[in-house]
């Protein structure tokens, strides 16, 4: 079943990307209007707020957080509103990072391709949060293990996976594999609103790293 885009041309393009270069070009083009396009009533992009609530419920507000695929900073802003003070961000798009920098809520922002290994040491963060990136034609399930690698033991990975690729995209199988290998524990995997204006849901993952 195709995910509803509400006719938004940027979303339609986003769900048919051909690779990282195509993604960078799209998000550079979209950066200036991204927030307005997605957070209005037509799309109702509530995933950043829902996920920020889950981060604080699981990990509190005192740790170091990596916002992987931070985009324009919507998640960082929501975390900051809830009292999280130390947030770093990674994104593929320089244009999106420029918007995120303007929010003033990030300690550090860097360009990175989440489909590749992260240039970060093991056990670097207390939390990795990833919203809107584990979806059609973006970042595949192998990123979950890489995120877990940079989280300290006892820390949390909190991520959204677009509901209609949860199984078909291999994300459920990868979570099962990581749990079976005793790398993570699934604290919760729930269906949550993602773009409420189009009745699009996600799987909201809260995984504790062992």
Describe the structure.
- Helix 4 (47-59) crosses helix 5 (74-81).
- This protein has a single domain, classed as Vaccinia Virus protein VP39 (Rossmann fold, 3-Layer(aba) Sandwich), CATH 3.40.50.
- With 210 residues, it is α/β, with parallel strands linked by helices.
- Helices cover 34% and strands 28% of the residues.
- The protein has a 7-stranded mixed β-sheet with strand order 3-2-1-4-5-7-6, with helices on both faces.
Helix amount, in percent? 25-40%
Mean of residue pLDDT?
97
In CATH terms, the superfamily is Vaccinia Virus protein VP39
Segments where pLDDT lies below 50 for 5+ residues? none
Cα Rg:
16 Å
Oligomerization state: single chain
CATH topology: Rossmann fold
First-last Cα distance? 35 Å
Strand order of the largest sheet: 3-2-1-4-5-7-6
CATH hierarchy: architecture:
3-Layer(aba) Sandwich
Domain unit count: 1
What portion of residues belong to β-strands? 25-35%
**Morphology:** globular
Q: Which helices and strands occur, and which strands form pairs?
A:
Blueprint: H1 9-14, H2 20-30, H3 34-39, H4 47-59, E1 64-68, H5 74-81, E2 86-91, H6 94-103, E3 108-111, E4 125-134, H7 143-149, E5 151-162, H8 171-180, E6 184-195, E7 200-209
Parallel strand pairs: 1-2, 1-4, 2-3, 4-5
Antiparallel strand pairs: 5-7, 6-7
Helix pairs in contact: 4-5
């Amino acid at each position: 079943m195709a995910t509803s885009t509400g006719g938004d041309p940027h979303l339609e393009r986003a769900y048919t990307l051909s690779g990282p270069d195509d993604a960078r070009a799209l998000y550079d083009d979209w950066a200036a209007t991204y927030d307005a396009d997605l957070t209005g009533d037509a799309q109702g992009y509530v995933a950043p707020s829902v996920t920020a609530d889950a981060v604080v419920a699981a990990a509190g507000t005192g740790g170091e957080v990596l916002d992987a695929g931070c985009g324009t900073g919507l998640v960082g802003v929501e975390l900051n509103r809830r009292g999280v003070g130390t947030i770093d961000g990674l994104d593929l798009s320089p244009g999106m990072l420029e918007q995120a920098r303007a929010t003033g809520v990030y300690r550090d922002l860097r360009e990175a391709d989440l489909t590749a290994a992260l240039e970060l040491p093991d056990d670097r963060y207390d939390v990795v949060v990833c919203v809107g990136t584990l979806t059609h034609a973006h970042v595949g399930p192998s990123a979950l293990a890489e995120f877990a690698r940079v989280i300290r033991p006892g820390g949390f990975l909190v991520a959204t996976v677009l509901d209609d690729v949860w199984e078909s995209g291999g994300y459920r199988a990868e979570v099962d594999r990581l749990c079976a290998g005793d790398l993570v524990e699934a604290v919760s995997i729930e269906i949550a609103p993602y773009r409420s204006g189009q009745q699009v849901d996600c799987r909201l993952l809260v995984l504790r790293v062992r």
